[in-house]
Amino acid sequence: MTSINSAFERVSSDLVARARELAPSILSDVCGRRGALAGRIQPVAPQMQVCGPAFTVELRPGDNLMLHAALVLAQPGDVIVVDGKADASSALMGELMCAHAAAAGIAGVVIDGAVRDVASLRQGSFPVFAAAANPNGPTKGLGGRIGHPVSIGDVAVQPGDLVVGDGDGVMVVPRAEVARALEDGAKKVQAEQARLRDIAAGKLVYGWLEGALRDTGMLAADKTLQQLRDEFAGK
């Protein structure tokens, strides 16, 4: 099996365009609260957002040879997803490589490892998500893999999966599940908008909570939350 695999199918551009309208938190909710990368992987600037198919890279800790290869091989719109083994002893990428990625049309990078030149990256528009920062540079002499499944941020990622990130972190949706997730996500957004309208109208008691409290024995069958609210208010 070759270490560099180009034979994988990407999530379609139409689905990627629809996914840009949904936050990672929405997608996480409709995907069973699975697929969100570990919280150590965050954008270098909170306003950064990324969305696109995963272009997977596996590195040896502290070595970025295969990441340089990925910058040449990834297609416009891809999100380079790097399994850097969560190693923070040296940066795998910095300002120069991010400039290269942006010029190549890459949608962003997600690295389970460290980056550097953070001050410059924060001022730029290229989305960079990483687990740490470190001024040390990497070595460039060890092999790895491109276009194979990786584990990043405690989540398995297949090449071509959907990657969506914002200030909360990064969510990965398996390619085969994207269409359904987008449909469910749109419904979730509508439900949350309705809830916000209820809150604005002062409707602060909602049905599912009452049922959940009863199911766990926290609310007696003959009581309602409104009755408890009245008791706390001394009515």
Automatic annotation (TrEMBL):
Its cofactor is Mg(2+); a divalent metal cation. It comes from the Bacteria. Substrate binds at G94, E95, L96, M97, R116. SUPFAM superfamilies: RraA-like. GO terms for biological process: methylation. One of its GO terms (molecular function) is methyltransferase activity. Mg(2+) binds at D117. It holds the Pfam family RraA-like. Keywords: Magnesium, Metal-binding, Methyltransferase, Transferase. Gene3D superfamilies: Ribonuclease E inhibitor RraA/RraA-like. InterPro entries: RraA/RraA-like, RraA/RraA-like_sf. PANTHER family: 4-HYDROXY-4-METHYL-2-OXOGLUTARATE ALDOLASE 3-RELATED (PTHR33254). This is Putative 4-hydroxy-4-methyl-2-oxoglutarate aldolase. The lineage of its organism: Bacteria, Pseudomonadati, Pseudomonadota, Betaproteobacteria, Burkholderiales.
